[in-house]
Design a protein that fits this description.
eight-stranded mixed β-sheet, mainly beta, 188 residues
Protein backbone atom coordinates (compact mmCIF):
# COMPACT_ATOMS: atom_id res chain seq x y z
CA UNK A 1 0.00 0.00 0.00
CA UNK A 2 1.42 3.38 -1.01
CA UNK A 3 1.92 6.00 1.71
CA UNK A 4 1.92 8.91 -0.73
CA UNK A 5 1.60 9.81 -4.36
CA UNK A 6 3.76 11.76 -6.74
CA UNK A 7 2.20 14.86 -8.27
CA UNK A 8 4.48 15.71 -11.20
CA UNK A 9 7.70 15.01 -13.05
CA UNK A 10 10.62 17.35 -13.64
CA UNK A 11 12.05 18.47 -16.94
CA UNK A 12 15.46 19.93 -17.67
CA UNK A 13 15.58 23.66 -16.89
CA UNK A 14 16.79 25.69 -19.86
CA UNK A 15 18.24 28.46 -17.68
CA UNK A 16 21.61 28.35 -15.97
CA UNK A 17 21.71 28.98 -12.25
CA UNK A 18 24.40 30.38 -9.98
CA UNK A 19 25.57 28.54 -6.89
CA UNK A 20 26.63 29.88 -3.53
CA UNK A 21 25.27 32.28 -0.96
CA UNK A 22 25.13 36.06 -1.26
CA UNK A 23 24.11 36.91 2.33
CA UNK A 24 23.21 35.12 5.56
CA UNK A 25 20.62 36.50 7.98
CA UNK A 26 20.60 35.30 11.59
CA UNK A 27 17.47 35.40 13.76
CA UNK A 28 17.59 34.50 17.45
CA UNK A 29 15.38 31.40 17.71
CA UNK A 30 13.56 32.53 20.88
CA UNK A 31 12.75 35.93 19.31
CA UNK A 32 10.78 34.42 16.41
CA UNK A 33 7.16 33.86 17.39
CA UNK A 34 5.99 32.25 14.16
CA UNK A 35 7.26 31.06 10.77
CA UNK A 36 4.41 29.21 9.08
CA UNK A 37 5.05 27.42 5.81
CA UNK A 38 2.76 26.02 3.15
CA UNK A 39 3.68 23.89 0.13
CA UNK A 40 7.41 24.26 0.82
CA UNK A 41 7.42 28.06 1.22
CA UNK A 42 7.67 30.30 4.28
CA UNK A 43 4.59 32.51 4.01
CA UNK A 44 5.02 34.67 7.12
CA UNK A 45 7.73 35.66 9.60
CA UNK A 46 6.70 37.10 12.96
CA UNK A 47 9.53 38.61 15.02
CA UNK A 48 7.84 41.69 16.49
CA UNK A 49 10.45 44.41 17.03
CA UNK A 50 13.36 41.94 17.00
CA UNK A 51 16.09 42.18 14.37
CA UNK A 52 17.66 40.01 11.69
CA UNK A 53 21.47 40.22 11.53
CA UNK A 54 22.85 40.31 7.99
CA UNK A 55 26.30 38.95 7.12
CA UNK A 56 27.34 39.61 3.52
CA UNK A 57 29.47 36.81 2.09
CA UNK A 58 32.50 37.17 -0.18
CA UNK A 59 31.82 35.52 -3.56
CA UNK A 60 32.36 31.77 -3.70
CA UNK A 61 32.91 31.02 -0.01
CA UNK A 62 29.53 30.09 1.52
CA UNK A 63 27.37 27.05 0.87
CA UNK A 64 24.49 25.09 2.32
CA UNK A 65 23.48 21.45 2.26
CA UNK A 66 20.35 19.65 3.46
CA UNK A 67 21.25 16.00 4.03
CA UNK A 68 18.42 13.45 3.91
CA UNK A 69 18.78 10.54 6.35
CA UNK A 70 16.36 7.65 6.28
CA UNK A 71 16.08 4.29 7.99
CA UNK A 72 14.14 1.45 6.39
CA UNK A 73 14.41 -0.50 9.65
CA UNK A 74 12.85 2.25 11.74
CA UNK A 75 10.62 3.76 9.05
CA UNK A 76 12.02 7.24 9.70
CA UNK A 77 13.43 10.12 7.68
CA UNK A 78 14.89 13.45 8.76
CA UNK A 79 16.90 16.32 7.31
CA UNK A 80 20.15 17.87 8.52
CA UNK A 81 20.53 21.44 7.22
CA UNK A 82 24.15 22.66 7.28
CA UNK A 83 25.54 26.03 6.29
CA UNK A 84 29.25 26.84 5.95
CA UNK A 85 30.41 30.45 5.90
CA UNK A 86 33.77 32.18 5.72
CA UNK A 87 34.47 35.58 7.24
CA UNK A 88 37.69 37.24 6.15
CA UNK A 89 40.02 39.01 8.59
CA UNK A 90 40.50 38.21 12.28
CA UNK A 91 39.11 40.92 14.58
CA UNK A 92 38.22 41.14 18.26
CA UNK A 93 34.73 42.37 17.27
CA UNK A 94 34.14 39.26 15.15
CA UNK A 95 35.57 37.05 17.92
CA UNK A 96 32.97 38.48 20.33
CA UNK A 97 30.09 38.03 17.85
CA UNK A 98 31.18 34.46 17.07
CA UNK A 99 31.11 33.67 20.80
CA UNK A 100 27.53 34.99 20.88
CA UNK A 101 26.59 32.99 17.76
CA UNK A 102 28.00 29.87 19.46
CA UNK A 103 25.89 30.43 22.57
CA UNK A 104 22.64 31.10 20.70
CA UNK A 105 20.10 28.87 18.98
CA UNK A 106 19.34 30.47 15.60
CA UNK A 107 17.07 30.42 12.59
CA UNK A 108 19.15 31.13 9.50
CA UNK A 109 17.98 32.66 6.24
CA UNK A 110 20.34 32.27 3.28
CA UNK A 111 20.01 34.61 0.29
CA UNK A 112 21.33 32.55 -2.59
CA UNK A 113 23.06 33.76 -5.74
CA UNK A 114 20.36 31.86 -7.64
CA UNK A 115 17.52 34.05 -8.88
CA UNK A 116 13.83 33.59 -9.57
CA UNK A 117 13.07 33.39 -13.29
CA UNK A 118 9.95 35.57 -12.96
CA UNK A 119 11.63 38.74 -11.64
CA UNK A 120 15.35 38.19 -11.03
CA UNK A 121 15.03 38.40 -7.23
CA UNK A 122 17.43 36.26 -5.22
CA UNK A 123 16.08 33.00 -3.78
CA UNK A 124 16.00 33.00 0.04
CA UNK A 125 15.76 29.78 2.04
CA UNK A 126 15.05 29.19 5.73
CA UNK A 127 17.16 26.73 7.75
CA UNK A 128 16.17 25.51 11.21
CA UNK A 129 12.60 26.77 10.96
CA UNK A 130 11.24 24.32 13.56
CA UNK A 131 14.20 23.15 15.70
CA UNK A 132 16.78 25.87 15.10
CA UNK A 133 20.42 25.84 14.01
CA UNK A 134 23.57 25.88 16.11
CA UNK A 135 27.22 26.74 15.55
CA UNK A 136 28.87 23.34 15.94
CA UNK A 137 32.24 23.66 14.20
CA UNK A 138 34.66 26.25 12.95
CA UNK A 139 38.22 27.46 12.75
CA UNK A 140 40.10 30.71 13.18
CA UNK A 141 42.97 30.77 10.70
CA UNK A 142 45.84 33.22 10.22
CA UNK A 143 47.10 31.72 6.96
CA UNK A 144 50.81 31.00 6.41
CA UNK A 145 51.92 32.73 3.21
CA UNK A 146 51.66 36.47 2.72
CA UNK A 147 48.73 36.09 0.28
CA UNK A 148 46.78 33.55 2.41
CA UNK A 149 43.36 34.34 3.81
CA UNK A 150 43.08 35.03 7.51
CA UNK A 151 39.65 34.72 9.08
CA UNK A 152 36.94 32.40 10.29
CA UNK A 153 35.29 29.30 8.89
CA UNK A 154 31.98 28.54 10.65
CA UNK A 155 29.61 25.57 10.33
CA UNK A 156 26.03 25.71 11.59
CA UNK A 157 23.74 22.69 11.54
CA UNK A 158 20.36 21.50 12.73
CA UNK A 159 17.91 18.62 12.51
CA UNK A 160 14.43 18.96 11.01
CA UNK A 161 11.55 16.69 10.01
CA UNK A 162 11.14 18.55 6.68
CA UNK A 163 13.63 19.91 4.13
CA UNK A 164 14.50 23.60 4.24
CA UNK A 165 11.80 25.96 3.01
CA UNK A 166 11.99 28.72 0.40
CA UNK A 167 10.94 32.16 1.69
CA UNK A 168 8.08 33.85 -0.18
CA UNK A 169 9.34 36.31 -2.82
CA UNK A 170 9.93 39.90 -1.76
CA UNK A 171 8.76 43.15 -3.39
CA UNK A 172 11.93 45.27 -3.66
CA UNK A 173 14.28 44.27 -0.83
CA UNK A 174 14.62 40.95 1.00
CA UNK A 175 12.02 40.49 3.76
CA UNK A 176 9.93 43.54 2.75
CA UNK A 177 6.84 41.34 2.35
CA UNK A 178 3.70 42.92 3.78
CA UNK A 179 3.01 39.84 5.90
CA UNK A 180 6.45 39.79 7.55
CA UNK A 181 6.92 41.53 10.91
CA UNK A 182 10.64 42.16 11.48
CA UNK A 183 11.96 45.02 13.61
CA UNK A 184 15.01 45.79 11.48
CA UNK A 185 17.85 44.25 9.49
CA UNK A 186 21.18 45.02 11.15
CA UNK A 187 24.09 44.89 8.73
CA UNK A 188 26.97 46.44 10.68
Amino acid sequence: MACGTLTKGRGLDCNRVSGGIKSVYFAVYDQVTSIPAASGAVTDIEMGSNSLYKYTMPLGVASLTDTITGSRENGTIFYTPTINIILNRLTKEDQNEIKLLGATKLIIFAELNATLAANGHNVIVCLGRVNGMELNAGTMDSGAAFGDRGGYTLTFDGMENEPFQTVADYTTDPFDNAGFTIGSIVSS
